[in-house]
Amino acid sequence: MMDGSRWLFLFCMQTLGIASFAGFESLAIPLPPSTYSETHLSFLSRKSSTESNNFWWRDRDWAVLRLFDEQQYPNARCLDGSMAGYYLREGSSLQRYLIFFQGGGWCYDQECNPPTRNGTLRNCRERAKTRLGSSKDWWKHKKFSWGMQSGDWYRNPVFYNWTLVYVPYCDGASLTGSAEVEGLHFRGKDIRAALIDTLKATSNISSADMVVLSGGSAGASTVLWHGDEMAERLGLGSRVVAIPDAGFFLDLRDERGVDCWPSQMRSLMDTIGGYDDLHQACLSTFPTQKWKCMFPEYYAGLISTRTFILHSLYDSSELYWTLWLNCCQRACSKQKTSQCSASDMHLFEELRPQHMQAWRQLVEKPDNGVWAPACVAHTMTEWYWNDETWAIPKGSGNTMASVVARWLDGDNSDGKQFEYQDVPWPGNGACLDPKGSGSAARDIFLSRGSGFLDP
């Protein structure tokens, strides 16, 4: 019998991700009964004692890396030419799949006066040296402990027992295009094809009851740009749905009136020849303005996959990287920034109606929906997924997790038609509460380099 202090030490090490996967599996440490939820205990009671000892450590949060077969998918490569792939964690609900696309911005010229091909390729070469451009340093096993990717019932009551397919981001263009440019591999289209075809060949996804396509930031752009194509490739009809988190980026000029971020994105697509791989119905609608198909506001009504949008009405990435605002509305005690001017606040406050108008045609389609808090945030499904302080409106219990669960079940019992966007800033409790989990968002605009785009 392991003494309590040693067990607590090992438990903390595992929870923090410090202890190795293999090491803990070999220890076969049984957890005390109070650690398990009733769901875990019920499941474990049906397992052998050896399986029970190992189950929690092996299956709850950990996923295994699978790189694509080079002979079968020779072009499914990251920027540096290494093979792309995905992490897989099989759930007990084998007929339900969550496919999550990692975010992490894009590679493009960091200057916008104007951005150039050389500047874009320079940035992409730097990215190719990182985990966002190469699979060479990807871990063989990856732990997903938080939010909608967690395998823990308490943290993730919606998807904890679904099969998780986590797709690392390594092409720099939201899995778009199929080209090699000066030694860089922009093979997002090939990665998408390899992913779906491999899953169909190696799992029972073809007979799944439901497949959710999700992702954060640039990963959510993958869903909005390519969700319809991937759903068609899966061949499951209405059983494929989309839940993009923080990917509905608007086509806006910055506070100086400069067309900065949109021009950087156009430069990327120009460089890699990626336009023709964007949303096909959009391309048919704008054959001479293909660039519009990078911005969902221009084709929201053309998205055919059933979609539930998760996006802050005051997205922090858009506030800085698109609008170039670097100020705070109230006391800036923790940030070296200045107070927002009246013109700054006007740009800030306009984001809410601009977003609501931009996604209106998509949200108003039957069985679609939106959860959009009045807080400054970006990519929310990891940290605020089941957080009761992040509810719309405050104190309603309408957390991301609870609302998504009802949406998946078609439960419109509250009569809101799955639209949760009716609170202006700072009406949600987490936005300005210094004791709440949203305290990091008290300053409206954070300083450059604080990392709005998830790594």
Q: Ends: how far apart?
A: 41 Å
Number of domains: 2
Q: CATH superfamily of the largest domain, called what?
A: Alpha/Beta hydrolase fold, catalytic domain
Q: What's the overall average pLDDT, rounded? A: 84
CATH top level label of the largest domain: Alpha Beta
Question: Reading side by side through the largest sheet, how are the strands ordered?
Answer: 4-1-2-5-3-8-9-10-14-16
Count up the helices: 13
Number of DSSP strands? 16
Q: Provide the β-strand percentage band.
A: 5-15%
Series of secondary-structure elements, N-terminal to C-terminal: HHHHEEEHEEEEHEHEHHEEHEEHHEEHE
Q: Pairing-aware structural class of the strands and helices?
A: alpha/beta
Supply the CATH architecture of the largest domain.
3-Layer(aba) Sandwich
Structure, explained:
- The structure is a single chain.
- With 455 residues, this protein is of the alpha/beta class.
- It has 13 helices and 16 strands.
- The protein is globular and about 60 Å long.
In brief:
With 455 residues, this protein is α/β, with parallel strands linked by helices.
Properties at a glance:
455 residues; alpha/beta; Rossmann fold; 2 domains; two-stranded antiparallel ribbon; globular; disordered N terminus
Q: What's the structural blueprint in terms of helices and strands?
A:
Blueprint: H1 4-15, H2 21-27, H3 38-44, H4 49-59, E1 62-67, E2 85-89, E3 93-101, H5 117-127, E4 141-143, E5 162-167, E6 179-181, E7 184-186, H6 188-202, E8 210-216, H7 218-234, E9 240-245, H8 261-272, H9 280-285, E10 306-310, E11 314-315, H10 316-322, E12 327-328, E13 338-339, H11 342-358, H12 360-363, E14 369-371, E15 376-377, H13 400-409, E16 419-420
Parallel strand pairs: 3-5, 3-8, 8-9, 9-10, 10-14, 11-15, 12-13, 14-16
Antiparallel strand pairs: 1-2, 1-4, 2-5, 6-7
